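ok posting inputs for the uracil job
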Amino acid sequence: MSLLRLDKIISDGGIATRSEARKLITSGKVIVDGNIVTRSDLKFDTETSEISVDGDILNSTKYRYIMLNKPDGVLSATEDREQKTVLDILPPELYRMKLFPVGRLDKDTTGLLILTNDGDFCHAVTSPKRRIKKRYEFTSESALTAEDAEEFLMGITLRDGTKCLPAELEIDLADPCHGYISVFEGKYHQVKRMLASRGKPVISLKRVAIGNLVLDKALGFGEYREISENEIKQIFN
Ligand code: URA
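and the output
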C-alpha cells in the first residue's frame, strides 16, 4: 500500500499541474470513493481508491498505463538475470502491478516507453495492422540529405533485403546530422538499420512520440507518470 497526497495523485495522472490540481480539489471537482474531497493534503492509496476529476475516473484499479522516459543502459524487458530492466527502476508498488513494456526500445535507445498490464492495449499499439506512428529523434555520424528523405518516403530496403513501409525523415536544417524519423511498423533495430542502409550510422536515438502521445518534457531520464484516459485516446487518433 502506498499513500499519496491527493494533489500529487492528480498531477501524476497527467491531467493537471500540482497547483491546478489543488484548485480542482478546492472547487469540489474531485470525488474519492463517492465523496467530494476538498483538502489537497489528504492521502489515498491509488490501488484501492477510485478517484474522479470532473467526472472522469483518474485511476482504474484494473489496468495501469505508465509513461516512462527510458534511460540509456536499461533493457525493455520484465526480468533479466544480469542486466537492469525497466521494471527494476520502478518503485515496488508499480513492480507489483505485473506491468510489461509496450513494444521494445534497444538498450541504448532512450525516451518514451509505455508500461501496462493491459494485453489488449499492448496488442493494439504494437500490431503492424494498426500502423501506429512512432517518432524518433536521432543523431547520426553523417549528414542526411533530401535524397535520403525521398528514399524514406519510398520505403527503405535494409541491407538484408527487407523492405520497410514508407517512413518520414525530417532533417534539422541547422544540423543535418540531427532530425526526426517516423515509422509505422516495428522491425528489429528498425531506425538504426534504416539509417545504416543509407551509410549514416546512428549515434543516439530517442523515441519522442507514439501516435499523438508525446513524451512529457517534464520527465527526466528514468522518471515516469500515469497516462490519462484522454492521452490513451491520443495514441490512436
Ligand atoms: N529502432 C531502433 O533501431 N531501435 C529502437 O530502439 C527503436 C527503433
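notes: The chain has a mean pLDDT of 93. The helical segments are 6-12, 18-26, 92-95, 119-126, 146-154, 190-197, 229-236.
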